[in-house]
Every structure is written in structure tokens, then in C-alpha cells.
Amino acid sequence: MLDETLAERYSEALYQMAREAGQAPRQLAELHSAVKLLRDHRDLRHALESPAISREVKKSIVRRLVEGRVQPRTLHFLYLLVDKGRERFLPAIARAFERRLHTDEGILEARVEVPEALDPEMEALVQARLAELTGKTVQMEVRVRPELIGGAILTVGDRLFDGSIRTHLEKMRERLARA
Length: 179
Fold this sequence. Notes:
With about 180 residues, this protein is α+β, with helices and mostly antiparallel strands. It folds into two domains: about 1-100, N-terminal domain of the delta subunit of the F1F0-ATP synthase (Peroxidase, domain 1); about 105-179, Glutaredoxin. The chain contains eight helices and four strands; from the N terminus they run H-H-H-H-H-H-E-H-E-E-E-H. It has helices at about 1-20, 25-40, 40-50, 55-65, 70-85, 90-105, 120-135, 165-179; strands at about 105-115, 135-145, 155, 160. It has a four-stranded mixed beta sheet with strand order 2-1-3-4, sandwiched between helices. The longest helix has 19 residues, at about 1-20. It starts with a helix and ends with a helix. The relative contact order is 0.11.
């Protein structure tokens, strides 16, 4: 919980600066690039998170990797994270920033989990129906999970709707065991 609170606080400060500059979408792209860099390079991630490496060395590493590729605001934000020992929060900060940007832009994030891939027409239909129901632009991710057997699990914002056959069978098994 503390991690989320810190991530929200840092992302909100960065979001306000980026929004005032009219650069919030670009800022998000740069945050995602930094997160990807850390995710793809394990040694780099360990170096930045290591308490044995000085902050100055960490900032030097950051400067060499991103200077000239990102806005000065992003570079200084990464320096701030290093100075405060918060480098490990970067992925959570990027997620919080994205949620905030999507909220302001009227974009609703949705995830649909299904036992087999949806054809493009069905995917578009689900997305259009969600947009119609919510009055928002829907950014939808579809995940294939064969263990669901049938039906679907839909996550919209922070709400979960589980209509999977697997869950129905588990509930039925529990009711029979109690009876």
C-alpha cells in the first residue's frame, strides 16, 4: 500500500508538470521507454537498485543512457528518483501516470480474458459495447486463458466481472460440498 501511495504521489507531481507543458502523452511514452529499458536489462536494473552503488554513479548511468533521448524533465525526474532512493518505483509510477492520463482523456482500460482468441469482429463488438455502456473511449486488452473453459472474465477499471465456466463450476462444487 505504501508503494502505491508513493507511486501515486510521484506520478501526480510529474503529471501536473507534463500537463502544464502540454506534454503528458509524450511524458508517458518516455516513462514507458525507461521502464522497458530497466525490464530488458537486468544488470542495469540491479545496478540502479543496489545500495552499494553511489547515487552519483547511478545518475551518471542514467545520464549516459537517456540524455538526448528524453526531455530534460524526464531526465531530472529520473535523477530525483535516484536521489530519493525510489528507482524501484518507476514501473508503478508509470502505471499511475498512465491511469491519470487516461482518466483525464476519458479513456477506460478494460481487460477481457477468454479461453480462446476472439475474432476481430467479436473483439470490436465487445469494445464498442463497453464504450456504449460507459460513455468512454475503451482501450481493451484481450488475454487468452484456456483454463477458463468457456465464458469470459472482464476487468473494467477496478471492477471484475467473472462469467467464466471455470468459476461457475468451482462455485457449484463448493455448494455441493456444503450440501
